[in-house]
């Protein structure tokens, strides 16, 4: 990085000498002030819990303009990728920086499909879980377990090894998610079928049984593929930052991705799609569209902890562009299945309309995010609610591994080690037991 001619000057009201801090310009987006030498020069840290103003790395992968509601993967708008490319093209783009030409597309599809099976031993590992375990608990374990199968063969300082770890993860995630689902259902696992598309193969592993094969419905397969594209990466969100921080110690990449899966599970992040659908079902059970006004009142009440799930975003202060695409997919899928009058969809539209006009949401720039509609689409496809976040994890795996590999390949990379403002007890002596 080359610093710009502009410098930031930090001065103190107590007369301590001011210091100049270098400033870097991104290709788009806000400039950053380099504070790496701040502690050395002033003995002070910066304070930014929740990273509201902190760029934790430099990256060339994904760019979000939250005010405009714009999302770019390697410069390409999400709207173009979602309508002109498939998920594997998007994976290739995120990993290598460019869209594949025809030959590279063919080679990449073949490469990924050669790695779709998981070690047979994984079945026995799965058996240790209760059948009713949450799929995200199972997936955290399964992805972590992959590290045991590929430890000696994964040297993270070797770019070829990093690349093959990425391919293995992208190829095996659908198999693992489908296995977690089948295990919960008490059904036999369905092995991957490599001649199918990435999304088609996943849906077959989910819905086929030894008694009946799955006949792919093109609209539903395309919807699933779009869900994957829309969730593939989202710059330095909580789970991606977790993967980067975890991986910064030089750990096994499969273990770092398992940390990302664990982070994604939370309802403020990937778990929001499950929470949003549960919320819609709850309102539906308690009176439906008629009760929307009452529900919104609860959401706005400072003394209640009720949130409108699927609304709001740390970065988007405008309509999430993924939500627009997901809304369109929602119409397509419900249309194809003859479910245009689905009460939950109607309820979601009514909630959205009221919230978009309500002063509380307008003032706080709270708009629907991708999770508001993705749950309805997945439910219509036949995916159980508890599996929604696992599907998000499947799709986000490419983003996690692309970001992890970018970090390890960056000459400026260091182990992540935040500092703190300590406000606890000063040094004190342990009193004898009788005096405590
Ligand atoms: N419903 C009601 N009020 C909300 C909501 C919501 N969904 N989201 C934010 N607010 C209010 C919040 O109470 C606060 O109000 P006030 O200023 O009066 O205290 C204000 O808006 C700012 O919110 P914040 O919590 O400071 O914002 P944040 O950037 O820390 O949180 C968020 C972002 C996504 C965690 C939050 O909007 C939220 O919890 N949304 C619901 C969960 C959700 O849908 N998450 C999915 C995010 S998109 C998928 C992903 O990328 O993981």
From TrEMBL:
UniProt GO cellular component terms: cytoplasm
This protein's record includes keyword S-adenosyl-L-methionine: no
Protein keywords: Transferase, Tricarboxylic acid cycle
Domain of life assignment: Bacteria
GO terms assigned for molecular function: citrate synthase activity
Listed Pfam families: Citrate_synt (PF00285)
Protein's pathway: Carbohydrate metabolism; tricarboxylic acid cycle; isocitrate from oxaloacetate: step 1/2
Catalyzed reaction equations: oxaloacetate + acetyl-CoA + H2O = citrate + CoA + H(+)
Active site per database record: 313, 371
Biological processes, Gene Ontology terms: tricarboxylic acid cycle
NCBIfam families: cit_synth_I, PRK05614.1
Family membership: Belongs to the citrate synthase family.
Protein name: Citrate synthase
């Amino acid at each position: 990085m080359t610093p710009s001619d502009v410098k930031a000057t930090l001065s103190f009201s107590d007369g301590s000498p001011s210091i100049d801090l270098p400033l870097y310009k991104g290709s788009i987006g806000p400039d950053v002030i380099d504070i790496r030498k701040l502690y050395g020069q002033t003995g002070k840290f910066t304070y930014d819990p929740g990273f509201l103003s902190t760029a934790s790395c430099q990256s060339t992968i994904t760019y979000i303009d939250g005010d405009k509601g714009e999302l770019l993967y390697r410069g390409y708008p999400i709207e173009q990728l979602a309508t002109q490319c498939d998920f594997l093209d998007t994976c290739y783009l995120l990993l290598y920086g460019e869209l594949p030409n025809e030959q590279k597309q063919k080679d990449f599809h073949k490469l990924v499909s050669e790695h779709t099976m998981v070690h047979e031993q994984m079945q026995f590992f799965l058996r240790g879980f209760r059948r009713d375990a949450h799929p995200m608990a199972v997936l955290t374990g399964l992805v972590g377990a992959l590290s045991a199968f590929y430890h000696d063969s994964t040297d993270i300082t070797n770019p070829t090894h990093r690349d093959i770890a990425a391919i293995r993860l992208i190829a095996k995630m659908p198999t693992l998610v489908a296995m977690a689902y089948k295990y919960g259902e008490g059904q036999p696992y369905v092995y991957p079928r490599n001649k199918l598309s990435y999304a088609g193969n996943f849906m077959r592993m989910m819905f086929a049984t030894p008694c009946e094969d799955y006949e792919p419905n093109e609209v539903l397969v395309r919807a699933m593929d779009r869900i994957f594209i829309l969730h593939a990466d989202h710059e330095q969100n909580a789970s991606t930052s977790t993967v980067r921080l975890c991986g910064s110690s030089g750990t096994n990449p499969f273990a770092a991705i398992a940390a990302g899966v664990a982070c994604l599970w939370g309802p403020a992040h990937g778990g929001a799609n499950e929470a949003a659908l549960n919320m819609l079902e709850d309102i539906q059970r308690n009176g439906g569209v008629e009760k929307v006004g009452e529900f919104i009142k609860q959401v706005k009440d400072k003394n209640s902890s009720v949130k409108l799930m699927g609304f709001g975003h740390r970065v988007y202060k405008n309509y999430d562009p993924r939500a627009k695409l997901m809304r369109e997919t929602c119409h397509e899928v419900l249309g194809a299945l003859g479910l245009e009058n689905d009460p939950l969809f109607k309820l979601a539209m009514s909630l959205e309309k009221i919230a978009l006009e309500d002063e509380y949401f307008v003032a706080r720039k709270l708009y629907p995010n991708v999770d508001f509609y993705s749950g309805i689409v997945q439910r219509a496809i036949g995916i159980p609610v508890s599996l929604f976040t696992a599907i998000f994890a499947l799709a986000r795996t490419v983003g996690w591994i692309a970001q992890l590999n970018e970090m390890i390949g960056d000459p400026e990379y260091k182990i992540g080690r935040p500092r703190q403002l300590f406000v606890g007890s000063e040094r004190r002596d342990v009193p004898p037991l009788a005096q405590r």
